[in-house]
Design a protein that fits this description.
Blueprint: H1 3-52, H2 56-84, H3 86-103, H4 110-124, H5 127-136, H6 141-151, H7 154-170, H8 180-202, H9 215-231, H10 240-245, H11 247-257, H12 268-271, H13 282-288, H14 299-320, E1 323-324, E2 327-328, E3 335-338, E4 354-357, H15 378-387
Antiparallel strand pairs: 1-2, 3-4
Length: 411
């Protein structure tokens, strides 16, 4: 490696570290408050509904108006971000939504609740996609996936910390003559306003305007982002139908979703389904239908299970149909699914079926059927953690703890 190449690599390393440490933690905190703002009304309802005389239907309708206005304003908000600059527009979003959240403390009935929830959705619209768009101004392509994955850590963090925080604020009930739900809105809204003001000082619209980078770092990043921009292929104007069927759009939708932790479950809704000509639900059938002596199965529960498996197969086939590089999207994915029991009639936990699909970028083999015998099912989870680069000596708890990989499926 030449001295010039080594010097460039060092500039890249120092520049990206400075960019990431300045922007990502700050935007994660902002996103944490955005997620907190979406769920706090549910905690406020514990006191607010009784105080304002709200029925469950009134509260449900009011809560849903947030998402209706958010949907309407999201795209225009991102267009405004492009026009006015990310620093000012993200600040505007946070200041207005923080003020509206604080004003939620003073709603007096269903109609004021409806109005404030609608305004709140419009005020907050565009923050998450705007923040993601903003990061693409600063992150070269090879950095984006892992940084965006880190950014979405705010989601479980908001769940973990948001619930006890909101409940704790309800305990301020009676302080200064205000109810607990009023304090909840005020004390979760005002920090958002302060963060919005901080945006004006922390964020910079584009790398070329970053006074907190050295001239050398700024020049390198500006040139690097220009190279990335030149490599992109414009697709022109597409109709809604063309967009919905565009393979690049579908692939990117899936790739974006891979930056999140996703759980897809056939749970209570699947347990309550029925089939034509059969009155019992799936769950009831698993307990009440006798085993067919000739077939050795429960016929109706078997039918329900096959429907779930067909959907699983359809999902996997859809991944395989999307071309990516020299292979397909499934080659670069890892899909993991399992049942929560083996024999539904008695809810047996022995022999639970587990499935994987995809080669995880060439790290996994496919087409194997492996009997687990008496080994815990966490062996598969432990193996997949290793595939994803998670360095942990064990996985699971108590009798399900394991440190043994399934070597047969490792490429």
């Amino acid at each position: 490696m030449t001295a010039a190449r080594t010097e460039i690599d060092e500039i890249e390393k120092v520049t990206m570290r400075r960019v990431i440490l300045r922007l990502v933690p700050f935007l994660m905190i902002c996103y944490f408050f955005a997620l907190l703002d979406r769920v706090n009304v549910g905690f406020a309802a514990l006191q607010m509904n009784k105080d304002l005389g709200l029925t469950p239907a009134m509260f449900g309708f009011g809560a849903s108006l947030f998402f209706f206005s958010y949907f309407l304003v999201e795209v225009p908000s991102n267009l405004a971000l492009q026009k006015f600059g990310a620093r000012r527009w993200i600040a505007r979003i946070m200041i207005t939504w923080g003020l509206v959240t604080a004003c939620m403390a003073f709603v007096v009935g269903p109609y004021s609740l409806y109005a404030m929830r609608f305004i709140l959705g419009a005020a907050e619209a565009g923050f998450f996609p705007g923040a993601i768009l903003y990061l693409t101004y600063w992150l070269p392509a090879e950095y984006r996936a892992r940084i965006l994955a880190t950014f979405t850590v705010s989601i479980p963090l908001a769940t973990f910390l948001g619930s006890p925080l909101s409940v704790g604020l309800l305990e301020l009930d009676g302080a200064l003559g205000l109810r607990g739900w009023q304090w909840l809105f005020i004390l979760e809204g005002l920090p958002t306003v302060l963060l919005g003001l901080a945006c004006l000082f922390v964020l910079t619209d584009r790398p070329e305007g970053a006074s907190w980078l050295t001239n050398e770092q700024r020049d390198w990043l500006t040139a690097r982002m220009a190279v990335d921009a030149a490599a992109r292929k414009p697709v022109g104007h597409l109709s809604l139908w063309q967009l919905a069927t565009n393979k690049y759009f579908l692939v990117m939708a899936l790739v974006c979703d891979q930056t999140r932790l996703v759980n897809m479950a056939y749970s209570s809704s699947f347990a309550g389904t029925t089939k034509p000509g059969y009155t019992k639900t799936h769950h009831v059938a698993t307990h009440e239908e006798p085993i067919d002596e000739k077939l050795g199965i429960q016929v109706s529960p078997h039918w329900f299970t096959m429907q779930a498996m067909k959907h699983w197969a359809g999902f996997v086939q859809a991944m395989a149909a999307q071309k990516e590089g020299d292979g397909n999207l499934l080659d670069n994915m890892l899909v993991y699914a399992h049942s929560d029991q083996e024999f539904a009639k008695i809810h047996s936990l022995d022999g639970i079926p587990m499935f994987t699909a995809g080669k995880a970028g060439g790290k996994l083999k496919t087409g194997y059927h492996i009997a687990g015998n008496t080994d815990p099912g966490t062996r598969l989870g432990y193996t997949l953690l290793k595939v994803m680069g998670v360095d942990t000596p064990t996985w699971g708890s108590k009798s399900n703890r394991t440190s043994k990989e399934i070597s047969e499926i490792l490429a």
